[in-house]
Amino acid sequence: MATLGNPKNTIEILNKYSFVFQKRFGQNFLIDEHVLNKIIAAAEITKEDMVLEIGPGIGTMTQYLCENAREVVAVEIDNNLIPILKNDTLAAYDNVTIINEDILKVDIAKLVEEKNGGKPIKVVANLPYYITTPIIMGLFEAHVPIKNITVMVQKEVAQRMQAGPGSKDYGALSLAVQYYAKPYIAANVPENCFMPRPNVGSAVIRLTLYEDAPVKVKDESFMFKLIRASFNQRRKTLVNGLTNAADLSLKKDDVTAALVKMGLSETVRGEALTLAQFAKLADELK
């Protein structure tokens, strides 16, 4: 069996099956062994682990996961890839299950229960960039038992995930990710590590999930509404951003009073507040 970290072997498989890349699935296959090893190391995969892989493609990363983990479940949306995975690139492994489905429709909690006795799993993914955020947020919000999520994302998305207050990359995504997990950028990955080459640089980021959220808040969904509203119009003050938000119906005086009580200026912008301050503001306004 040929390992797919080698571009020559990848091309041979694609030609053998006359595979056509689907733009709508944002397919870019990794062809760099060095990067594949970095992902395994970042995800800290051991023989004890069950790994959920989202978007295995032709199975490049999956081969590495099968070698290093106890069990792998690979969820692939493109049914043209299923014969390649089942009959060819993963045929030699008996510790992999291939599911032809959209990950957003899979009952992950049930999978974890069946395959791992409900104990936390690890997630590895090389995701199409337009769907990265919904998938990651879906995993967080479902509160499925997960140790860490190691994903290949667009470089600037990785930077946004780990940005802190006051920086231009800091926003609703930074706060959402950091409420659930500790982000760590494990590697930057240039365009030439993929086939076909994407137009943007990529990065491998590991999100280690917290057992308990780093801040306490009475109403999580209300806090995230505040966060989204405060970044919807970045140039506006927080008071204006929140009072203009249609789904919040907050009064200017109440927002101003809450900020003053917290020792913040009434002209402060959302990008200046930490996660803890947004949690406190949510509790004050609730």
Structure summary:
40% of the residues lie in helices and 18% in strands. With 286 residues, it is α/β, with parallel strands linked by helices. The strands form two sheets. A seven-stranded mixed β-sheet has the order 4-3-2-5-6-9-7, sandwiched between helices. A two-stranded antiparallel ribbon has the order 1-8.
Describe, in plain words, how this protein is organized in 3D.
It is built from 12 helices and 9 strands. The protein is of the alpha/beta class. The chain has 2 domains: 7-209, Rossmann fold, CATH 3.40.50.150; 220-285, Orthogonal Bundle (Helicase, Ruva Protein, domain 3), CATH 1.10.8.100. The strands form 2 sheets. Strands 4-3-2-5-6-9-7 form a 7-stranded mixed β-sheet, sandwiched between helices. A two-stranded antiparallel sheet has the order 1-8. Helix 4 links the parallel strand 3 and strand 4. Helix 6 packs parallel to helix 8 and helix 9 packs across helix 12. The longest helix has 13 residues, at 220-232. It is elongated.
Helix content range of the residues, please? 25-40%
Query: Which stretches are low in confidence, meaning pLDDT under 50 for 5 or more residues running?
Result: none
Assigned CATH superfamily of the largest domain:
Vaccinia Virus protein VP39
Give the overall shape, derived from the CA principal axes.
elongated
Largest beta-sheet characterization: 7 strands, mixed
